[in-house]
Design a protein that fits this description.
Number of helices: 12
Strand content: 5-15%
Order of helices and strands: EHHEHEHEHEHEHEEHEEHEHHEH
Distance between the termini: 37 Å
Structural class: alpha/beta
Oligomer: single chain
Largest sheet: 7 strands, mixed
Helix content: 40-55%
Number of strands: 12
Length: about 375
């Protein structure tokens, strides 16, 4: 089996697994405890925070440990909305965000906040003119992802940040960075980002750990009440082993990013060339997309048929966001990009990782061509019956 679903989750680095096991055995004490073991655990966690901060070129006190980006996105959006409601109750996002952002904003709408959902073009790029028009005096937050989890579209965050801050310097910019870190360059200062969310399991780290960057001076209403952990941002006993393991994954991913980008770009180009030659397939990812995600549709075919056919041939792919893939609705992302219902209902996502080689990509193209050749007569018959 060749695993082509790294956008859903990644296998952890061997060093990360070893580190987490070691810390769990040695530093099991509560880092908030006053005794010697607790202090040792606190020191280890402090060092992990410093490593995470260095990987993002920020300060350690701007790093908050979370359970992942779903929590981080909710903390950023709801926390900002509630903290700064006196400034206004207007939020801006896009129609192609991950469910942990999109549904969070939908929930705030039921509580009285106004949300503007920016349109995107056929390649999934946000309309910057619409963004400029949308930012108002009462706009508390703009939340726009770095890399789209379905198509790989990369947003022009430097331009986004410039527009937001020129229109209203007090408006906060939140970036869901889940699919970008470790694959493409990240510049929180260049983007003028105030908040930035990550999940460790997307960059070969442990599940159940994440980072929320909160720029100095920004306050968030805490969603989890209790103790004073994480500088009051998130109550609960700290996951020391998870933090240390994640920090190692962040360091390794940051160091390996340039080499990985070059290799995945080469593999992606081979896949794109192959997919374009297969009759019936329609690419949804653009040439400017992130190097690790390729998305295509096979109109007229249920995506699960293609997923299972590829699995039988030793290739593991997915349909859309892993958080939504078990539901049969058409892709909200593809519909927002102007795709028709058939294309939006038949999407397949291929996502690359550190272990892939050119030979794997050639094999995948070969298998795809064979499967499509076998399925085409069936699809044509079904089309004629309609």
């Amino acid at each position: 089996m060749i695993y082509w679903d790294h956008a859903a989750t990644t296998p952890p680095f061997d060093e990360v697994v070893d580190t987490m096991a070691e810390v769990m055995k040695i530093h099991y004490a509560n880092p908030s405890a006053l005794h010697r073991s607790g202090e040792a655990a606190a020191k280890v966690q402090k060092r992990a925070r410093e490593v995470c901060a260095a990987a993002l070129d920020v300060q350690p006190d701007e790093i908050v440990f979370t359970s992942g980006a779903t929590e981080g996105n909710n903390m950023a959006i709801k926390g900002a909305a509630m903290q700064y409601s006196s400034r206004g109750k207007h939020i801006i996002t896009t129609g192609i965000e991950h469910p942990s952002v999109y549904e969070c904003c939908r929930q705030l709408e039921t509580l009285g906040w106004e949300v503007t959902y920016l349109p995107v073009d056929a390649e999934g790029m946000v309309d910057l003119a619409a963004l400029s028009e949308a930012v108002r005096k009462d706009t508390v937050l703009v939340s726009i992802m770095h890399v789209n989890n379905e198509t790989g579209a990369m947003q022009p965050l430097a331009e986004v940040g410039r527009i937001v801050k020129e229109r209203n310097p007090r408006t906060l910019l939140h970036v869901d960075g889940v699919q970008g870190f470790g694959k493409v360059p990240v510049s929180l200062s260049g983007w003028q980002a105030d908040l930035y969310s990550l999940s460790a399991h997307k960059f070969n780290g442990p599940r159940g750990m994440g980072v929320l960057y909160i720029r100095r001076g920004v306050q968030l209403f805490p969603l989890i009440s209790g103790g004073s952990q994480e500088s009051g941002h998130r109550a609960g006993t700290e996951n020391v082993a998870g933090a240390v393991a994640m920090s190692k994954a962040m360091r390794l991913s940051r160091e390996n990013q340039p080499e990985l980008y070059a290799r995945m770009t080469e593999i992606r180009e081979l896949l794109l060339q192959g997919i374009r030659k297969i009759p019936g397939l329609a690419l949804n990812s653009s040439e400017q997309s992130a190097p690790h995600i390729i998305h295509f549709s096979y109109p007229g075919l249920k995506p699960e048929v293609m997923v299972h056919a590829l699995e039988e041939m030793g290739m593991l792919v997915s349909t859309k966001s892993a958080c939504s893939s078990k539901f049969s609705e058409p892709s909200r992302v593809l519909l927002a990009m102007g795709k028709d219902m058939e294309a939006a209902s038949s999407g397949i996502r291929i996502s690359l990782g550190k272990e892939h080689q050119l030979g794997d990509a050639a094999r995948l193209v070969e298998v795809l061509a064979k499967i499509c050749g076998n399925l085409r007569p069936i699809i044509e018959r079904e089309g004629n019956r309609r």
